[in-house]
Amino acid sequence: MEPNWRTSSRSSDNGGNCVEVADNLPGRVLVRDTKDRDGGTLTFEPAAWQAFVNLAK
Question: 12 φ, ψ to 5°?
């Protein structure tokens, strides 16, 4: 299964600092920088990612 990347809802179209998230894979959430997609990917357990999102809100 391939990651289904989506851009953060907080991203803008003017080249700001953005991240992409792929949360369609079983048991993991992937996060990468939109300006350096080949620069590496962070991997989180879904519960850890949800906790981060809840705190960031």
Answer: -115, 170
